[in-house]
Amino acid sequence: MGHTVREIADSIGARAEGDLDLVITRAAEPASAGPDDLAMASTPKYAEMLAQGQARAAMLWPGADWQAMGLRAAILPDRPRFAMSGLTRMLDQGQGFATGIHPAAIIDDTAELGEGVSVGPLAVISAGARIGAGSVIGPQCFIGRDARLGPDCFLREQVSIGARVRIGARFIAQPGVRIGGDGFSFVTPEPSAVENARKTLGDQGDAKPQAWARIHSLGAVTIGDDVEIGMNTTVDSGTIRDTRIGNGTKLDSQIQIGHNVVVGNDTLICAQVGVAGSSVIGNNVVLGGQSGVSDNIFIGDRVILGAATKALSNVPAGRTMLGYPATQMENQMEIYKALRRLPRLLRDVAALRKMVSKSSQDG
Predict the structure, then answer these.
(1) Is the dihedral of CA 340, 343, 347, 353 positive or negative?
(2) Residue 33, CA distances (Å) to 60, 89, 159, 264 in order
(3) Residue 131 belongs to what H/E stretch?
(4) Taking CA atoms, which of 57, 217, 251, 279 is between 20 and 30 Å from 100?
(5) Active-site residue, from 3, 102, 216, 259
(6) CA neighbours within 13 Å on the CB side: how many for 33?
(7) What is the pTM of this model?
(8) Rounded distance, CA 5 to CA 56, Å?
């Protein structure tokens, strides 16, 4: 089933020109687009590839000369990148999960499912769990005892939600998400070498080897509305209070959120980030891929950590940080430039030493 150029433009609030009754079946890259595809050519660079394909319509940029490109129609959004959000939502064919309750699902008699909830094969919904109306629980998912999911949640296959977890509306979990496992929290009978080293910044003192005792997780996880979590990401339960993730926050794949962490609203956390226990991440923060946050520190609102940055101490609001340990990006770039000049500097110093030594011998 397709959509006309007019329908697509109206849906995303964009201007359209040309033959608005052309039917579009899918979006495609310009070089591979067929006659029924909408070519994604949002910049002049991509538009150069239109001649390699067969597209009759394209999404371009404001003021683009679409007729000179040999097209019959064009959609011209003010912000093409943002328009992709509405376009992809409109053209998304979904995962094909069947509606209703699959006969191979296991649902406790005390669980409560809202109107229109779908449950896939081999899913398990435990005692006391409540699933909001319109939610989809994919195949092989697990919902723990007394867990709560708001309306219109969408759990892909093999998602685990632990006991007493609270999740708001319109939550999306990609395959393999794990919410509500116990935190990584252990303690020794006497102060350990790690505690001494942390206090002294290096000296382990006279601490002797000891066995680790487990601290159980009595808290759970609370997640706000409109949160999305990527594949194989884990969020640990809190020790006493809940680990918390705010409204509108998006987590990429393979992220670890430790116990007692608090993440604010509309924060973006990219792949392979690790956030250690009891840290506080503010609102509108961006943590770049493979960045890390040490335990018991705060990252202020609107902070950006560049890729692979390691924050070992508090970061004030509004800072852009880079490096290990994290420093302000402009300072880190100066340090990097200095490091690149270091071999030449060392050669110059060696030459000067040789000259001084030779002058001394001649004198």
Answers:
(1) positive
(2) 14, 19, 35, 41
(3) strand 130-131
(4) 251
(5) 259
(6) 28
(7) 0.89
(8) 11
